[in-house]
Amino acid sequence: MTANRVIGVDLGGTKVLAGIVDDEGKLHETVERPTVTTSQTALLDELAEVVRALPQHGVGAVGFGIPTRVDAERGRAVGAAVNVPVRDVAFRDEMQQRIGLPVEIENDASCAAYAEFRFGAGRGARDMLMLTLGTGVGGGAVTAGRLFRAWTEFGHMVIVADGIPCQGACSGRGHLEAYCSGRAVDGLARQVLGEDATARDLVREQHPALGGVGHYLGIAIGSLVNIFGATRIVIGGGFGMAAFDQLVPHARLGVLQEALSPAGQSLEIARAELDAAGVIGAGLVAFEAL
User: Which tens digit of pLDDT belongs to each residue from 93-126?
Assistant: First the structure.
């Protein structure tokens, strides 16, 4: 099947954003709807309606970026998503039946990473990682120019043995998400500024407490570099973008401490560039279904 347009869908906890993506990574018409959270069936039905709300001419496939673990080979969502009603479902098959087009799925942060690699802050790199610091922490990896299509739950890597409990349904302790997510830094803000403070207040005041957050981030990045051999790290997500300038100097020191030489010295840390990386990345994944 030959097509130069696909639909990318970025499923978030509060909204669904979908758009037409061409083979040069350009985003055309878009549709945004609130996320349906009443049931899994209702959500899947609404996702199909979102897709149908876009022009279908020339569209060859649909890609979905979803906030959970993904078995890309079987097209399944694995386990339970934290903030949407998706749990252990044959997501690809369910959506193909509803839409009538080929479907591909991938983790939402991996989609964003792939888009940044191809068309954003990762351009020119061969091996790249992305960390999205938002309500939680997500991530994706590109190795030898290809998206690493396996679980990249970087937010749940341990950076402090027996550390503070992780968020949501996760039973682990000492995970990156518990120290560097926007929600975690909201808690830090309440400790140092008062009960009504948030992460935004720490960023606005350029509070020194953010140095500790940056240090933990660097520890995680250093370990990831040792595993993946990445030469560039892209930081995205609402909190990550807002606090980038205050986190990165401290993160660099953490990287130098943990990454094997000379990787730590030469590592590039870049701010994400794309406004709709999740949609574009889901579209890029969709092209693989053609």
Answer: 999 999 999 999 999 999 999 999 999 999 999 9
Give me the CATH code for the 5-111+276-287 domain, please: 3.30.420.40
**What confidence tier does 267 reach under pLDDT thresholds 50, 70, 90?**
very high
Q: Per CATH, which fold does 124-271 belong to?
A: Nucleotidyltransferase; domain 5 (3.30.420)
- pLDDT computed for residue 3 by the predictor: 73
- What is the residue extent of each domain of the chain? 5-111+276-287, 124-271
Mean residue pLDDT across the chain:
96
Query: Which 3-state string (H, E, C) describes the chain?
Result: CCCCEEEEEEECCCEEEEEEEECCCCEEEEEEEECCCCCHHHHHHHHHHHHHCCCCCCEEEEEEEECCEEECCCCEEEEECCCCCCEEECHHHHHHHHHCCCEEEEEHHHHHHHHHHHHCCCCCCCCEEEEEECCCEEEEEEECCEECCCCCCHHHCECCCCCCECCCCCCCECECHHHHCHHHHHHHHHHHHCCCCCHHHHHHCCCCHHHHHHHHHHHHHHHHHHHHCCCEEEEECHHHHHCHHHHHHHHHHHHHHHCCCCHHHHCEEEECCCCCHHHHHHHHHHHCCC
Same CATH topology for 5-111+276-287 and 124-271? yes
pLDDT (0 to 100) of residue 1: 43
Query: What pTM did the predictor assign?
Result: 0.95
- Summarize the confidence of residues 197-226 as an average pLDDT: 98
